[in-house]
Amino acid sequence: MITNKKQSSKSCVKKKANRRRRLTPPVSGVKRLKKEFQDSLKDTEARYKNLFENSPVGIFRTTPGGRVLIANPALIKMLGFASFAELVARNIEKDGHHPDTPRQLFIEKIERDGEVIAFESKWLRRDGSTMYARENASAVKDSHGKTLYYDGTVEDVTRQKQNQEEIHFRVNFERLIASISTRFVNIDARVVDQAIDRVLQEIGEFEGVDSCRINKFSITGKQIVRTHGWRRSEGDGAIDETTKQTVAIHPWTLKKLWRGEVVQLSRSSRLTQRKINAEAEYEYMERQGIKSLLCIPFRMYGQEKGLLILAAENEDRTWSPDTVSLLRVICEIFSAALELKFTATELEKERSLMNALMDTIPDHIYFKDKQSRFIRVNKAWAKQCGIDNPDGAIGKSDFDIFTVEHAKQAFKDEQEVMSTGLPIVGKEERETWPNALETWVSTTKMPMRDEKGNVIGTFGISRDISHHRRMEQERHELELKIQHAQKLESLSVLSSTIAHDFNNLLMGILGHTSLALMELKSDSPAWESVKQIETTALCAAELTNQMLTYAGKSKVTLQSLNLASLVGEMSHLLEVSISKKVRLMYNFNDVRTLIEGDSAQIRQVVMNLIINASDAIGDKTGTINVGTGVMACDSAYLSKCHISVDAPSKSFAYVEVTDNGCGMDKATVERMFEPFFTTKATGRGLGLAAIVGIVRSHKGGMCVESEVGKGTTFRVLFPVSTRKAQIPEVAHNDDSKWRGSGIVLVVDDDQIVCKVTERILSRFGFTVVTSFSAESAAAAAKQHDGALVAILLDISLPDLGGADVLNHMRAVAGDVPIILMSGFNVESATSDMEPGSFEGFLQKPFSGETLAIKLREVLGSKNQSDRPADGGAPVAR
Questions:
Q1: Greatest Cα pair distance in the chain
Q2: Computed over its alpha carbons, how large is the radius of gyration of the chain?
Q3: Hey, which residues does 735 pair with through a beta bridge?
Q4: pLDDT tens, 166-220?
Q5: Are residue 499 and residue 452 in the same domain, yes or no?
Q6: Is the separation of the CB atoms in 96 and 90 below 8 Å?
Q7: Which of 584, 540, 546, 593 is nearest to 566 (CA)?
Q8: pTM of the prediction?
Q9: On the chain, which terminus has fewer CB atoms closer than 10 Å, C or N?
Q10: 570 and 694 share one domain
Q11: Residues 573 and 479 in one domain
Q12: Would you list the DSSP string of 758-819?
C-alpha cells in the first residue's frame, strides 16, 4: 500500500509538469502570436480606414461645444467644404445648424438618452443652402460621467425630404382645390367676390407669396383693372395696388397674355435679357419691389379677359408645372363663379347700394344671429378690428375679438333684447379692440326679425364717442387746474397779506429796539438782550421776505456769489439744524465759478433741502452729502427737471444734496412741491414749496432722483455768471449821533408804524406829523407848506396806493423829498412808478439806524445841514 502511494504521488507530479509545459509555449511561439495580433490589428485599422474614407455616410466626432474633431470625406463633401481644415474652422454650434432646428435640440436629447437614433434636423452647407440630415450618435463620457465627445454618422436625406414635400404640396393643393370647388358649388352670386378674395388669400398663404389678385382688361383693352385681391401685409409693401393701370407699361407681358400664354418670371432681372428686352417693365417691377411673378390668363364675364397674378416681393421663385396646372383649375372655378355673378347684376346692384350705405357710415354696424355670432359687419367695424375684409368676422363672436368682460356684457345685453323684444338705446360702454386701443361708444341694439316677425338675431349700431369723453375729461381736468390755480392764488394773497401785516408788527419791534439801543450804553446789562431782540426781528423780517417771494411779491436782490463759499459758511448752522445721528459730508468742486443770486434766499434753499434730507433719514444713523460743482446741461436733461429751467445758458453751477433716507415713490415725487403736502407726521409742508419760487426767480431748475428705501438726491441748478464777485462797501459814518431839524410827515395806515417812526424821528431832532390816509396826508402837507423837510410815505394806503398816492402827494408837496416805505422790496413796490419820481426807499421793517442813514442821504442831496447833538449851529458836510 505504501509503494502504491509513492507511485501515485509521482504520477501526480508528472501530470502537473506536463500541464505547465502545455500552458507555457516556447519563446518562438510568443513572437509568432504577437505578430499575428499586430497583423490582425493592422488589417482591422486598414478596413476601418477604408470604411471611414469610402463610406457614403458621413462620420463625425464633435465636442459638446461644437468643435469638429473627426470628419470623413463623405461628410466634408456633403457639407460643401474643400478640406477637413475648412470644416474644422467652422463652429457647428453657431454656424452649422439651421435656426429652425438648433443644435441644442440634439444635445438635449443625446445628453438625456446617451444616444440618438434617426434624429432629423436641418444643417447649413458652406454656401448657406439647407441640408436635411438624419443622425445616429452616442455620447462618450469619462469615468466621472462628463461628456468628452459625440461619435456618430449622418445621412443626407435632402432629396427624400424634397420629394416628400413635393408630394405633400401636391396633395394639399389638390385638397385646397377640392375644398374651393365645394365652396363654389351653388354659391350665392352676392358672395362670389368675397369668396374669391378668401380663396386668393388661401392661395397666397399656401404658396407663400406676398400678394394674390385678379385683374381684368377694360372693355377698350387699354387699362388693367384689379377686381379681387389679397396682400400678406396690407399697406406695408411696395407692390402697386391701384385699381387701374395702363397697359402701355407692360408690352411684353401683355403680348404673351393676349395669346393665352402663361407668364412665369422666376426673377424680374430676366426681363433685361436680350431675347426679352423689356427694360421698361423691369424698371416698373423694381420700383414696385416685385422679385418674381406668375400671371395666368382666363375668361371673365363671357368674353372679357382676366388675369390671376401671384407676386413675391422678397425672393426669386420657380413656378413648377404642377402649380401652373392646378392654378389653371382655380381659374376655371373663378370663371364659372364670375359668370354666375354676371347673371345676377341687378341683384348685385341692390346689394351694392346696401354695401355703399353701410361702408360709408363711420359708425360700427353689425348683425348677429341668435347665438350672438356675427353674420355681417360694416367696413368701419372690420377696420377697427384689424380685419381686411368684413366677411372675415362672419361666424365669430365678441369672445373672439374683445375682452372677456366686454364680451360677456354684450352677450347678456343681446339675449335680453331678443327675449324682451325691446331695444337698448344709447348705452355708453368701453371697448378694447384687438390692437389694444380703448374707445368709448354709444351703442344701440335692436331685435332683428324675419318676414314673419320672429326674432332671429340682433342688429347693432355703435358710435365712437371717445372724443366727447376726452373733451369731458379735459374739461374736468381743466376745472381741477383752475381750482388748483385759485388755491395757489389764494395762498399767494394770504401769504402777501400776512407778510405785510407781520412786517408792520416787526417794524414796531425793530423800531423800539433801535430806540432802546440808542438809549442804552454798550456796557449796560440789558444792551446784549436788546441787541439779540433786534437780531431776532431781522431774522423774522427775512422770513417774511421769503413769504413775499413765494407769493411773487418780491424780487431777488442779485449779486455775484460763489456757491461753494456760501454753503461752506453755513456749515455750522447746517450741522446744528439736523439730527445728531446724521453726518454731513461736503464735496466742493470748481470753487471759482460764480452765479447771480440772492444770498439769503439761496441759503434758505440749502437749509430747507438739508432739513428735508434729515427728516427723510429720521431717527436712524445716516449721511447727507452736500456738494457743489459745474455741469453742462443739454435740452434733453433740462426737460426732465422737476422745476423747469428758464434760462438760455447751457452751463450751470449746482448744489446737490443726497441722503440715504427712506426715499420717495413716483407719486410722492410728483406732489412734493405742492403747498401743504407732506409725508411727515408733523409739519406744514411748505419747506419744498418755498423752494419753487426761489429757484424760478433765479432762472434755475431742480432735478430730483429718488428710490424707496435707498434715498433721494436734489440737484439745484443756477446759470453760471460771467461777473466778478462784489465786495460790499463798509460804511464808516456814525449815524447814531446825527441830528436833523424841521417837520417830517409820516404817512402810514398802521398806528404802530406811525408811532415808532415818530419816536425815532423825534430822537434825531425832527418834528413829526403823522397821517393814516392819503386824504389826511394831503391836508397835513398843505397845512405845513414850506416847513416840511421830508415825507415818509407808505405806498399801500387803504384809500390810495402805488403810483397814484405818490403822484397825489407830489402834486401837493411840490419838491419836498419823498421817501417811500413798503413791506415789498424796491423793485416790486415801485414797478409802476417813473424813475426819479421819489428820493428814497425804505423796506419794512427797518431799524432806527437805517432810517437815519436814509434821511441823511436824502436830506443831504437837498442841501440840508446837520447840527450837533447839543443843538448848536448847523455843521456843513
A1: 181
A2: 50
A3: none
A4: 777 778 777 888 888 888 888 887 788 888 888 899 888 888 888 898 888 776 6
A5: no
A6: yes
A7: 593
A8: 0.37
A9: N
A10: yes
A11: no
A12: HHHHHHTT-EEEEESSHHHHHHHHHHTTTTEEEEEEESB-SS-BTHHHHHHHHHHHTT--EE
